[in-house]
Amino acid sequence: MPVPPAGAPAQSPAPAPAVAPGPDPEAAVAAAAGSVAGRGGRLGPVALVITAGISVQFGAALAVMIMPRAGAAGVVTLRLAAAALVLLLLCRPRIRGYSRADWGTVIAFGVAMAGMNGLFYQAIDRIPLGPAVTLEVLGPLVLSVAVSRRLVNLLWAALALAGVALLAGHGGEGGGFGGLDPAGAAFALGAGAMWAAYIVFSARTGRRFPQADGLALAMAVAAVISLPLGIAEAGSALLVPGTLALGVGVAVLSSVLPYTLELLALRRLPAPTFAILMSLEPAIAATAGFLVLGQALSALDALAIALVIAASMGAVRSQTRRQPA
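Given the sequence above, the corresponding structure tokens read:
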């Protein structure tokens, strides 16, 4: 996922790949993602975003297994610390040569990442995953409406919001939002606000830092922020081998892979379109629940998912029509 070196002027989103001696796992991941984007043409970033969403939802399912062992804050610490370690080892980011604005951007990205993860895991510790994701996705939807300059994007956002509202009102086996813990719902809404900030600063970081260097540094910032909270809640439970192993799995599925794919996508996809695509998350969560947990989908659930997918497809189509071949 090469970009111009730090200090160089911004280039087009598809620069030539960097050459590095010997095998480089991070470069291999980037090359694979770049290959997907290349085969998909202008729809390549969309495939990256959808793949990231699938990875996040299965990572969330795995995280549920750790919650009784380490608590919500402990899971966040394991996830972010393991992801930071993996990315720092793979990317080996440079520390020097960046401006104060560059560091301000990467620190803000890390704060948004820590807040998004911390608030979301506090939410799913109190309310079911489906309603939590549905409430959280309102943040990117609000962002798409706030920054869009085209009426058609507002219409697609409204359609996606209608699908999310229908899914929320019915709620499948969870019985909708009635009776939800108020603190859990508030945490989910806060996670949505931080998710909107994550979208903005992820795009800015991708433009300022080469390859995944900015992501690795931001992940380290997020890990440092979450570490005291995780230690305070979980203590020595964080060092149990089984818990550590699951934490690494959550980190790869929920942080390393999806954040890298989203960073790649945001270099080629406008933030409003990306935000509307995030409305796919409740649909992906419902699908994961059906495949992993055996949760059947009702007709209203299917209709809500169809509305969300239609909105996302419309947003992508309207965006790709604007881009030159």
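The first helix runs from residue 25 to 40. Try to locate this feature in the token string yourself.
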